[in-house]
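lol so apparently i was supposed to do this last week
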Amino acid sequence: TDAAPAPRQAATPDQALEALKKHVAEGLARTPKTLSSMYFYDDEGSRLFQQIMALPEYYPTRTEFALLTRHQAALATALRPEDAQEPFFLLELGAGDGLKTKILLRHLLDTGASFTYVPVDISGAALDGLAASLRQELPTLRVEPIVADYGAALRLMAARPGRKAVLFLGSNIGNFLPADRQAFLQELAAPLSSNDRLLIGFDLQKDPRFIRAAYDDTQGVTAAFNLNLLTRLNRELAADFDLATWQHYTDYDPLSGAVRSFLMPTQAQQVHIGALGRSFDFAAWEPVHTENSYKFTRPLIDTLAADAGLAVAEFFTDEQTYFADVVLRL
Ligand code: AVJ
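anyway here it is w/ N,N,N-trimethyl-histidine bound
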């Protein structure tokens, strides 16, 4: 039998803790201090993000949902192989609850496409939940989840014959700094052939006040989401952050197109981190940078694609041009 190479498995709890310790030690030693939004998503953080997606101010999720609904037929045509006999794999990187993807999955099933849905995540638990909900809602769908990092999953799938359409929705690409974004896209593109397709969601530049409001909602859910990172460090690294003396702060810079989020102490303080066996000093209002959420323009997306050796095959937007789902190919 042809044994497929084993996917790189998700980190063990021990490895994950070591990675978090290293990240925090390095991030808080830096000037300005930084912590990565990658660590927002513990159970509570994931729950808060679900709440963010339902906020009146947080437009990206519902806009992309409407966009996918509106353009489902054209999107399916752009992604599926012309030859219905050809094997077809729909890969999704960071599927989450799959709510948006189900629009496409349902459309493909309804129009008789033969394909396999391959959700990819480093968290097995996240994939189990998604697979269970898909068995309920789309019982005829073939699902083959892969627990691995994105690059490993793509290299694994490259060995199988047929069209691969790789989805990276939700403007998750906005979390990367420009240099990292370029490297990420190159890693995605490397295992692809000219027969494959990428579908990437980009939040677009628009009224800066409107963008800013999406990251500073009046109910304070985004603040709780950001501050939850400190609660996590208190619990997992035996830190003693006093949450009453920390605030969420965010701004949008229309020149760079970046929303930047910070945690700020309202007074000077020293915080002990037990797991690191050391303390860190914070000045009053010293920003700790926790997240970038970049917003894009059509020229920026064209350049980004070209620099990764890709071409824009199709560019879909919603009626207000708030968001774009872009089909890329070699
Ligand atoms: C999940 C990365 C797309 O940047 O808009 C939402 C995360 N942060 N509110 C985003 C987030 C604050 C979100 N992404």
